[in-house]
Automatic annotation (TrEMBL):
Top EC class for this record: oxidoreductase
Keywords: Cell cycle, Cell division, Cell shape, Cell wall biogenesis/degradation, Cytoplasm, FAD, Flavoprotein, NADP, Oxidoreductase, Peptidoglycan synthesis
UniProt similarity note: Belongs to the MurB family.
EC number: 1.3.1.98
HAMAP family registered for this protein in UniProt: MurB
Residues annotated as domain FAD-binding PCMH-type: 17-187
Keyword Repressor among UniProt keywords: no
Active site annotation, chain numbering: R163, S232 (proton donor), E327
UniProt cross-references to Pfam families, sorted A to Z: FAD_binding_4, MurB_C
Pathway where this protein functions: Cell wall biogenesis; peptidoglycan biosynthesis
Entry-linked InterPro entries: FAD-bd_PCMH, FAD-bd_PCMH-like_sf, FAD-bd_PCMH_sub1, FAD-bd_PCMH_sub2, MurB, MurB_C, MurB_C_sf, Oxid_FAD_bind_N
Protein name from the UniProt record: UDP-N-acetylenolpyruvoylglucosamine reductase
């Protein structure tokens, strides 16, 4: 285990905001992970596990222990109809997808280039281009922080939803994902429903789908190595049918998709139609190619990003009456915090 005190977090998250933490540890085994939670000197400190930090914003100095998950290893088994991959939580997700496609283990290609670790994928049930993690998930193994046992949940037990899972609810702060099981059908079928993928022929190969997705993502989304960001800053809001009809009556061009519990609206469209592309506060700005992405374009502080996010929230709420919810997880001094806090502060 590597231990660092008062460590700068720049290398451990993708927003590129200058922020530090009291203790940072890099763990390579489940035994080390347990050790971190059991050490008497860190017992009273808050703790957070990170993969690649591509979905977090540290809003201030973190007065606790940041645990970097670097549990590595991939096992592959197969039966007549499926390949089964067991992947340790600290494996790099985009590398895993690339490797699986090159090894003729198809099924993950639509989830190419999503930054992060394998162990983070179930937390928000990552999704892109017509599929979600739940579509390839067999099981999730987590370390229970009450019993220190590793427990296996079946896909059904994970309560996956849009950017949602049991790890954000019943198991919040009680579980560290240490491994995932993926089940990939040998009888591969391409998922080509998402707009730009429809240009591919039905008999295309997994590599062609992979390449097409990498091409779309490279054009649309900023590379965190060049420009700090955390992907979509807000979730696409899911409205009731009645709320959607009211919105669509005023804005007939609104981009929407059917969702299991209503109608999902493209938040990027809502923000774009507010004329906010390129809008900047301090060093933080709305990305020119994708209005749903907030970027660190000029040494942004966390406060710049929060002020910009607050502005976006207000513009969208005022214009459409739709309340956006941030997808990016805000990590405060000792716990997770939410944009509501700043919105309420400004109201009072
Ligand atoms: P982190 O940011 O390190 O952690 C995210 C949250 O999960 C934190 O609350 C953390 O405490 C918790 N967590 C992390 N690991 C564990 C663990 N092992 N056990 C328990 N809790 C844990 N997301 C999509 O769904 N689809 C996309 O298309 C997409 N595109 C993106 C594009 C860009 C350019 C960027 C920067 C981000 C994008 N994202 C996307 C968001 C991000 O890639 C995903 O949320 C990813 O799963 C985060 O992985 P991570 O390892 O970086 O998680
Ligand atoms: N749009 C605009 N202007 C914009 C952005 C989008 O008008 O600036 C409209 C376009 O009409 C476009 C539609 O919104 O057709 C949807 O945009 P896009 O296809 O780029 O997808 P998204 O809804 O903005 C979601 C996910 C992404 C995921 C893509 C592809 C969320 C919050 N975001 O974005 O995930 O990669 O679909 O499936 O669901 C992430 O979660 O970090 C992320 C990047």
């Amino acid at each position: 285990m590597q231990i660092y005190l008062n460590e700068n977090l720049s290398a451990y998250h993708t927003f590129g905001i200058q922020q530090s933490c009291q203790v940072l540890v890099v763990v390579d085994t489940v035994a080390e992970l347990m050790d971190v939670y059991r050490r008497p000197e860190w017992q009273s400190l808050p703790k957070i596990v990170l993969g690649k930090g591509s979905n977090v914003l540290f809003t201030e100095f973190y007065q606790g222990v940041v645990i970097i998950n670097r549990l590595r290893g991939i096992d592959v088994r197969e039966d007549e109809n499926h390949y089964f991959l067991h992947v340790q939580g600290g494996e790099d997700w985009p590398e895993l997808v690339k490797w699986s496609v090159s090894q003729q283990l198809p099924g993950l290609e639509n989830l190419a280039m999503i930054p992060g670790c394998a162990g983070s994928a179930p937390i928000q049930n990552i999704g892109a281009y017509g599929i979600e993690f739940q579509d390839v998930c067999d099981y999730v193994d987590y370390l229970c922080l009450k019993t220190f046992q590793v427990i296996r949940l079946s896909r059904a037990e994970c309560s996956f939803g849009y950017r949602d899972s049991i790890f954000k609810h019943r198991l919040y702060q009680q579980a560290v994902v240490v491994g995932i099981g993926l089940k990939l059908a040998k009888a591969w079928q391409p998922h080509l429903k998402y707009g730009p993928l429809q240009q591919l022929a039905g008999n295309c190969s997994p590599t062609e789908v992979f390449d097409c997705i990498c091409d779309i993502r490279t054009r649309k989304l900023p590379d965190p190595k060049q420009v700090g960001n955390a992907g979509s800053f807000f979730k696409n809001p899911v409205l009731t049918e009645a709320q959607f009809q009211t919105l669509a009556a005023n804005y007939p061009d609104v981009v929407s998709y059917p969702a299991s519990s209503g109608v999902k609206v493209a938040a990027g469209w809502l923000i774009d139609q507010c004329g906010l592309k390129g809008f900047q506060i301090g060093g933080a700005a709305i990305h020119e190619q994708q209005a749903l992405v907030l970027i660190n374009c000029q040494h942004a502080t966390a406060s710049d990003v929060i002020r910009l996010a607050t502005h976006v929230y207000r513009c969208v709420h005022e214009k459409y009456g739709v309340a956006l919810e941030h997808e990016v997880r805000f990590i405060g001094r000792s716990s997770e915090v939410y944009l509501d806090m700043w919105l309420k502060e400004q109201q009072s």
